[in-house]
Amino acid sequence: MAHSKKKSKTKAKKPAAVPKAPANSDRAVRQELAALFEKSHAHVSLKPALAGVPVEIRGVKPAGAPHSLWQLLEHLRIAQWDILEFSRDSKHVSPDWPSGYWPATDAPPNEREWEKSLHAFEHELNEFRKLVLDQKTDLFAKIPHGTGQTILREALLLADHNAYHIGQFVIVRRLLGAWHE
Ligand code: NI
Prior knowledge:
This protein has helices spanning about 1-10, 20-40, 45-50, 70-90, 110-135, 150-175.
């Protein structure tokens, strides 16, 4: 009888330690986090927000705005690099707060530095995305060299920090007339 055959087969096998549903939700959490880095659903997509900034406005602080686009870009890059390296490297040393998280000047030294910063930001965002998608990464375990942080918390911190400053970035672009919906 087909039924009993099935039963005996199941018995012979070692029962799975993890039921299907949690495995699926683990994957779902990873995919939601990865998606959050690229395109926060409620806000502008990340890449277009940072791309195509005219050279002549990169170091300009519009009236009432506390930061130039260069300052915001570098702040985004440095903070993200710090969160990424803290999450994956026990020997990582964070910069001094707050001076180490902002560039020294309003304007980039040259065009190359702007491109370098932008590429580093995109590369490191992708590195964090890969870390979160990696099944070997435990999202919920306390980071051994931390003070209670988990990768999940770092991922949410990163998405939140990026969204906040990318929002500022878009406002500054808008004030400088360099934003197209
Ligand atoms: Ni910040």
